[in-house]
Design goal:
- The chain folds into two domains: 1-31; 36-98.
- The protein contains four helices and no strands.
- The protein has helices at residues 2-10, 12-30, 37-61, 67-96.
């Protein structure tokens, strides 16, 4: 228990920034009109690409016996990759709505 308290005491400023970033992100995204969600999704894909690269770098530098870092890094890679792929799929489907449809008469 003392190790956990020492960790939070040592990293108090970083934990505070992460928590405030979460609240700020929720507030900003919650106030965005539906029309702008597709451009935001494309921007989020780029950000999640950076998250995947960062997770790979951290996993590469983790010690072999540090299972927590390896598991969290692996989860970050998998979930970040799913988020990027899903974002591109949604963006592609949204952009398909704006393409002209081929009529049955013009074959």
């Amino acid at each position: 228990m003392e190790q956990i308290i020492a960790f939070f005491t040592e990293h108090y400023d970083k934990i505070t920034i992460v928590i405030l970033s979460i609240f700020l992100g929720v507030e900003i995204i919650g106030r965005v009109p539906s029309v702008l969600h597709t451009p935001l999704m494309s921007g989020a894909n780029a950000i999640h690409g950076v998250v995947v690269i960062g997770a790979i770098i951290i996993m590469g530098q983790a010690e072999a016996d540090n299972y927590l870092a390896l598991i969290l890094g692996f989860l970050a890679v998998v979930l970040g990759t799913l988020n990027v792929v899903g974002g591109f799929v949604v963006t592609d489907r949204m952009l398909e709505m704006f393409k002209k449809k081929k009529s049955a008469n013009s074959k």
